[in-house]
Amino acid sequence: MKIDGVPHRSIQAEDGAILILDQTLLPWRVEWLRIANAGAAAQAIRSMQVRGAPLIGAVAAYGLALALRDDPAALEPVAAMLGETRPTAINLRWALGRMLTVLRPLPEATRAARAWAEAGAIAEDDVATCRAIGAHGLPLIEAIAAGKPGRPVNILTHCNTGWIATVDFGTALSVVYQAHDAGIPVHVWVDETRPRNQGALLTAWELGAHGVPHTVIADNAGGHLMQHGEVDIVLVGTDRVTRRGDVANKIGTYLKALAAHDNNVPFWVALPHSTLDWAVADGVSEIPIEDRGEAEVTHTTGLLPDGTPGSIRTAAPGSPARNPGFDVTPARLVTGIITERGRCAASEVGLLGLYPERALAA
């Protein structure tokens, strides 16, 4: 995708390092952070300088590759360290598992070069996957547009699912971008996505850079808009999907699904194959939910009156806060799932229809 008209990917490999966008500085400043070792990669993931389930996986893969350049014997401990940085997004574990499967049988002397190549392959896989997700989701927007000629398709999204959450294109926003680029009039309702405001800060910045009409709304406004017929479809991404179709995504997604269900608004979830967790059945009881620090709830960041980025407290002094980072939307509330292989029902039967090889592996 583009920044000021210049194509970029959200991870760039160079000799002995990778460059990532420091997402904690967006949209105020566009700065590229140089990652030259596994420790720096882990810190970037923990601090959310890099975020988005697919992108986290790619960064972790490169972090492991960088570690092996310094110590080819460090495969297992470094993979374990990177795997502990974020508990909910399955893409992290998937990417590290793929790296370990490839690298474990190799002599230590050959691991570093192979690891770098494999990390690059994971990044390229994500680009192709996200492009295909957009193509498979596009007919949903086309069908809605055909039913309201001359009027924009109103899409509600939660959190950030664009190219800065992946290597390129995005997941749910890949559908939006491809519809916009095809000439379909679209308008996106962008949830602010408290407490870190990834929608108001990141999604709005992305959409604006690409020229997609959009409006930032308070997280609790979505149900009201649905009641008044101002939302045609909800499109979200996810950090983990169970084999039965339960969806873990940014906190607040479940409430959007409930409102959509009550108002007969289709609720679609876009994801790459690396987000599917075939080992988990019941998302509510089995998916680990990351609890983050209180300060994300009690404080908010933005531009201070002098024009510099900063943080201010918005909660009453002395009040404690609870900050679960994700919630789980049961499959019964999901209209369908969009992957790089097509669309399906949010069910084990539906997912196996797209990934029949998983039935053989069970």
UniProtKB/TrEMBL annotation:
**Similarity comment:** Belongs to the EIF-2B alpha/beta/delta subunits family. MtnA subfamily.
Q: What class of enzyme is it?
A: isomerase
* Binding-site residues for substrate, renumbered to this chain: 51-53, 86, 198, 249-250
- Active-site residues from the entry: 239
Q: Which UniProt keywords apply?
A: Amino-acid biosynthesis, Isomerase, Methionine biosynthesis
Write the Enzyme Commission number(s) for this entry: 5.3.1.23
Annotated stretches, region: Disordered: 299-326
Recorded protein name is Methylthioribose-1-phosphate isomerase
Which GO BP terms, alphabetically?
L-methionine salvage from methylthioadenosine
User: Which pathway, metabolic or otherwise, does it act in?
Assistant: Amino-acid biosynthesis; L-methionine biosynthesis via salvage pathway; L-methionine from S-methyl-5-thio-alpha-D-ribose 1-phosphate: step 1/6
Cross-referenced InterPro entries: IF-2B-related, IF-M1Pi, IF_2B-like_C, Initiation_fac_2B_a/b/d, M1Pi_N, NagB/RpiA_transferase-like
What species does this protein belong to?
Answer: Humitalea rosea
Pfam families registered for this protein in UniProt: IF-2B
A GO molecular-function descriptor: S-methyl-5-thioribose-1-phosphate isomerase activity
